[in-house]
Amino acid sequence: MADVMEGRVIVEGEAEGELLVSSQPLSFWGGYDHQTGEIIDRRHPLSGQIARGRILAIPNTVGSSTTTAVLLEAVRAGTAPAAFLTTCTDSFLALASIVAGEMYNRPIPIVALSLEQFKKLESGAHVTIGKAGTLLLNPGSRPAPAALLG
Amino acid sequence: MHLTDHDRALLSGDCGPAARMAMSIIVRMGEIQGATELLDISQAHIDSTIYMGEAGLEFAERLAKLGAKVAVPSSLNVSGLDECHWREWSVPEDWASKAQRQMVAYHSMGCVPTWTCAPYQTSMAPKFGQQIAWGESNAIVFANSVIGARTERYPDLLDICAAITARVPALGLHLTENRAGQLLIRLKDVPLAVQQDDAFYSVLGLLLGRLAGQRIPVIDGLEAVPAEDQLKALGAAAASSGAVALFHIVGVTPEAPTLDAAFQGRAPLEEHTITMQQLRDARRELTTAAGTKLDMVVLGSPHFSLAEFRQLAPLLEGKQRHQDVQFLVTTSRIMRDLAGQAGVLAPLEAFGARITVDTCVLATPMLPKSIKVLMTNSGKYAHYAPGLLSTQMVFGSMADCVDSAVQGRVVRDDSLWQM
After folding, report:
1. Residue contact A30–B137, C-beta within 8 A
2. Tell me: domain B5-176, CATH 3.30.499, correct?
3. Is A22 an active-site residue?
């Protein structure tokens, strides 16, 4: 059975993919390899995971203001996440998405969730994001490794 | 969102295609963030100068080709290249030519070629209360907290849009009511000698970033009077481990003459205590290398100041680095020249230290692969290097860094931290 969640659209768009979730914020500069889509912050719970083409759920970004430039590179290289789920209006993610729209006509959809909704997300689930910010969640076919739930 | 006639002119292309592109990005961001209007800024610091790859270069060159000109004095952050000395290092030719094209693009828009992440230590430092649009996380937190200028955390690509239009969404830290402290952080039983140590500020910053996230922390109970470079280290670390854009220190920073003023009369949302044990643990975490093997010491993130050169010179005097350990200081051309004029570069040269300007080891691929273990006194370098450079990291004081470079292996004086 698919779960349904109504999120708040930050940047509109449709996306579909496997969910990658962490309750820890991420800096993309020093935290994301735009050539591969790997999360490379070795202190982050998602270190070593490939976020390319997946739906990346993090509460917000932290750290360097170069986060947006890294994400724009990732969009151009085709290594960016397919969409973001957050718990706030993260201006860094929003800007990267808007500029990706302006430069490459490929904005990244961003949907903000409440903390309660965010807590229900599990890595490995299959998510479909609709234009109005509606999420359809289907449990993943394989259990998420415990390390990803942090 | 309310737009003025001038805003509409920018948006409609009356002021040229570059201003139209910049303004459309500013307005969309304002709408997403829920701003009701825009406000004027009178200065900018552009972090988009860092070369990351094709996309950032295409963005810069598109704006330049459209005839973009900045409308306010705009300093430039570090670039992806030490323009005059990159051939002395392992920077690939292809990278160098593209990074240089990106430098030329921003230069052509009328920006001031400061090429530094510490613009607040140059003549382009803003004034108290000035509305500015700054990029570079460490510069943002310094401008807001230590100077009392007003900037949001402007991400790369938005900073140049603000500089071209001189307009930003009127929200966040631009507005007085949003600058009140939110978290109260009390220091508990931290000896004065520790509070006076440079490393304390990097370590405290790391903890502060983790505790505060995006919120505004207020530190109470600091007995020492921190130097400018100590506040610089504190902010840089807090803006690395967290998203801190403004902190207050009661009795030290300009918007916090009293605890009550720091919170604008409101109650803290949370209270936290920082103990010596937490500081010890955080300091330990900044070191990822095991053992005493060392390849290179690197100082200067944020860029080394004249005061830091003056602090380093006597530590090196009459000594020489071990042949197996390189010693690098990253700074701006301005500070290097000032340090030369102040006569404090000679001991560095005699020691065998090298200086890189315009950039830093995190922003340009200058280090050869043989460099596997780095040592630094910078909380920011220690935080980012393991991910960005895949190197092991040792965190120590400036004196520890010098001693280690002389002995050719990691040596640290931990006595202060065992108190």
Report:
1. no
2. yes
3. no
